[in-house]
Design goal:
19% of the residues lie in helices and 37% in strands. It is an alpha+beta fold. It starts with a helix and ends with a strand.
Length: 230
């Protein structure tokens, strides 16, 4: 039986977790209050699993990226410089659009117990974009590090109120120092840090609660590689 839309999208949001304003001063930034702040933001970001939305982001250097997520049917699209990832009930499809012709590789669809492997999203994370799942993993890692330092601020991004944290000294994380903003809806508003030796500066410029259907289409004339059956 295929997974329900809510369970499928939730699986996408937490895929990397299966591996495991006013500034606050250093004292108030430690202990339960600090942990509570980071945990709350992580929960807020995970809660966006139930949303239908389309968000456009500006990246460092002027490029743009888009994250779109729907519920009926359950699906998600990540469009970034040089690539595209589509996650649906039929397949997880990674497209490389920087080559001619574009190449799209289809693998088994995600399930609540078998989300897409993090490698599928490596192209996004090395293109100057960052996925919500990557940020969620960073926040959860920070929540476990009692020595990490955090500063909080509030802001407005693309017309949405957001809570931001700047974290430094997070041991064992893909980004030891990073800052991120999460909107009240739980959508990734911004991120700044170094991931996979690439400087990532992402800021949401547009948000809508409707989807553009073309985001879920494969590039025209793409070479298709179907590996869903091994």
């Amino acid at each position: 039986m295929p997974p329900t839309p809510r369970r499928l999208i939730a699986a996408l949001v937490v895929l990397v977790l299966t591996t495991g304003c006013t500034d606050l001063d250093e004292t108030s930034g430690q202990g339960p209050s600090r942990n509570g702040l980071v945990v709350d933001l992580a929960a807020q970001l995970a809660g966006a699993a139930n949303l239908t939305y389309e968000a456009t982001y500006q990246l460092a250097g002027g490029a743009s990226a888009t994250i779109a997520q729907g519920q009926q049917p359950a699906r998600a699209a990540y469009v970034y410089p040089g690539g595209k990832v589509l996650v649906t009930a039929d397949a997880t499809t990674e497209c490389r659009t920087s080559v001619k012709p574009a190449t799209c590789t289809m693998t088994a669809p995600a399930t609540p117990t078998s989300p897409p492997p993090p490698a599928v999203f490596r192209g996004a994370d090395t293109s100057g974009m960052v996925t919500p799942a990557t940020v969620l993993a960073l926040l959860n890692r920070a929540a476990l590090d009692a020595d990490a330092r955090v500063a909080q601020r509030d802001t407005t991004i693309a017309g949405r109120h957001a809570t931001c944290v700047d974290l430094t000294g997070v041991d064992g994380a893909a980004a030891r120092d990073f800052g991120t903003c999460i909107t009240n809806e739980g959508v990734l508003g911004s991120f700044s840090g170094v991931l996979h030796q690439v400087r990532v500066d992402v800021a949401m410029t547009d948000y809508a609660d409707r989807l553009s259907e073309d985001l879920f289409e494969m590039p025209k004339s793409a070479k298709l590689i179907d590996r869903r059956r091994g």
